[in-house]
Amino acid sequence: MIDLIVLGAAAGGGFPQWNSNAPACRRARADDPAAPSRTQASIAVSGDGAHWFVVNASPDLRAQIGQTPALHPRHGLRSTPIAGVILTGGEVDTVTGLLTLRERQPFTLLATPPVLDLLDANPIFEALDRSIVPRVPLALDQPFALALPDGTPAGLTITPFAVPGKVPLYAESGPDPAAIVENGETIGLAMTDGVRHAYFIPGCARMTGPLRARLRGADLVFFDGTLWTDDEMLRAGVGQKTGQRMGHMSVSGDGGTIDAFADLDVRRKVLIHINNSNPLLLADSPERQVAHQAGWEVSFDGMRITT
Amino acid sequence: MIDLIVLGAAAGGGFPQWNSNAPACRRARADDPAAPSRTQASIAVSGDGAHWFVVNASPDLRAQIGQTPALHPRHGLRSTPIAGVILTGGEVDTVTGLLTLRERQPFTLLATPPVLDLLDANPIFEALDRSIVPRVPLALDQPFALALPDGTPAGLTITPFAVPGKVPLYAESGPDPAAIVENGETIGLAMTDGVRHAYFIPGCARMTGPLRARLRGADLVFFDGTLWTDDEMLRAGVGQKTGQRMGHMSVSGDGGTIDAFADLDVRRKVLIHINNSNPLLLADSPERQVAHQAGWEVSFDGMRITT
User: Fold this and answer.
1) Quick one: which of A77, A269, B64, B136 could link to B7 by a disulfide (CB 3.0–4.6 Å)?
2) Band of the pLDDT at A107, cuts 50, 70, 90?
3) Residues paired with residue B135 on neighbouring β-strands, in sequence order
4) pLDDT tens-digit profile of A194-243?
5) What number of other Cβ atoms are within 10 A of residue B285's Cβ?
């Protein structure tokens, strides 16, 4: 069994974004049922429905745990069903929630070496005592059997793999700070119980041949739903950057996500990490219809998929 | 006018704390009306009811803004009524929320040099572009007239002053890591519109003569309500540290906060930064009665005081 809960479906900033007065964010603030609020992207995954691994620690993690009974402590005075945290990148919206998980609670922190380097470079993350929360490097393309803090197998094996992406904004430097790289700075995650195969890829700058081959025939794929069109933030007047500049391919258009997945025979396709500028967030948008007709679901906070 | 909104009333970890299964946290999770949830300590203060300064950027800041209509954007596509953020320390629970305020939105970040040094030492805070969010050092005991980002006076003057405290846990080092110091690492904040005098002191290791003199006759004081008794976390089996070890004086007992304020003639006294182990959080606790009878209010998320 792969049991999966969407803790947050939105991209960095969430929906609504704190400083956005754009129409969609106003609808979310007004509790419009067609524009439900979404926190920042994260999932929890379990092989037994009892012990969970949080994939990406969003800034909203404290609220996300509060809203998710499966993640509430159940034993003793201090405990957690969260056995570990896996990071697919070092962006603010994937690591900030680690600061919520202090309080001397054992769990395992798993990330690739470039992401662990980013944490090492920020002493604030020493709030997680390394003797209690070990930092375990993940090697690209090496299957890694998840275990509970006591060593018991968790029933899931993950395989991290590099996807095209960019370094976090706060770590940009050098002559080409926005270069798209594929070095493990941004990863996708394959998850399997030995039978089913699920993927979590919240950020991806472009589809590649090897990625296409990897995903073909998968049972479940969560994929980068940041932007509907590459220039939507510019056109809406809410930002200066294209999706490509931010390291995200767009959902629509030639070479977009819908296009790229058309012949991949993935059983269940779910968009996640959806920016507040993306009309997919609105249940009554024509873009939502287009995505649905192409076989895509739009994730929402609390969505649960068991496969 | 000093207009003040409590964004969060709880100490670090909030109430309920993510990994606490103690009875009080279970009551909060069960929506017991006598144990309402509280987010991590922060206030917003305004001299005109329209432009706000957030004092301490808690990890819950995104949710706190969402719950506070006064802090919602009102103009254009991107804007905020938040003119600045003032930090009284460099703890995880006072700085993490800065990472929520990215998105190229101008405001001013004000803190003492030791706290700015802690931010400087953590490149993740470069997510706030210094050309858009200037970092302004506050000098101890120097009145500082708050201004809006366009330079307009905000109608409030703050004076930061050192209070006994300790360095953040993640920055502890040396032979006496928990030493109580009074060097500006932890500050209190005096706030005035020229007529009224309010104070915000969410962490204080002990009452001193100069602090007593400063607070005498104040209109409003928010004060460290972390623990009811110094050893309550040890006795409850939920922690190894006393309040003194964490840099917080306790509310009750000889030399405690109630005792220390007994003859200070403060018009309105409000406890804030209340730990989830503190029975003051429970409306039906005898300790709450004792505090009320001594003239203290217990702050809650959304509490608004205009003085």
Assistant:
1) B64
2) very high
3) B109
4) 999 999 999 999 999 999 999 999 999 999 999 999 889 888 888 888 88
5) 18
Q: Given a cut of 80, is residue A247 above it in pLDDT?
A: yes
Q: b vs e for B23-48, b when ≥16 Cβ sit within 10 Å of the residue's Cβ?
A: ebbebbbeeeeebbbbbbbbbbbbbe
Q: Stretch A7-14: mean pLDDT, rounded?
A: 97
Please give the tally of structural domains in chain A. 1
Q: Is A292 helix (H, G, I), strand (E, B) or coil?
A: helix
Number of A–B residue contacts, CB under 8 Å: 141
Percentage with pLDDT > 70 across chain A = 100
Of A14, A21, A73, the CB nearest to B19: A73
Q: Which residues make beta-bridge pairs with A42? A: A8
Pairwise CA distance, residues B209 & B224, whole Å: 17
Residue B166 has pLDDT above 90, yes or no: no
Chain A residues closer than 8 Å to B72 by CB: 21, 29
- What DSSP state is assigned to residue B78? B
Inspect the interface and report whether the beta carbons of B100 and A59 lie closer than 8 Å.
yes
Beta pairing, strands A197-201 & B268-272: unpaired
Give every CB contact of residue B151 below 8 A, 6+ residues apart in sequence: none
Taking the CA of residue B63 and the nearest CA in chain A, the distance in Å comes to 8
Mean pLDDT calculated for residue range B244-269:
94
Q: Which of residues 12-71 of B touch A (CB under 8 A)?
A: 12-14, 16-22, 29, 37, 59-63, 65-66
Which range is least confidently modeled, A3-12, A165-174, A239-248, B32-41?
Answer: A165-174
**Domain limits at A139?**
3-306
Q: Are A64 and A70 in contact (CB under 8 A)?
A: no
User: Looking at chain B from residue 183 to 202, which residues have their Cβ under 8 Å from any Cβ of chain A?
Assistant: none
Chain-chain contact of A73 with B102 (C-beta, under 8 angstroms): no
Query: Could you tell me which residues are beta bridge partners of residue B62?
Result: none
A12-47 pLDDT, tens per residue? 999 999 999 999 999 999 999 999 999 999 999 999
CATH of the domain at A173: 3.60.15.10
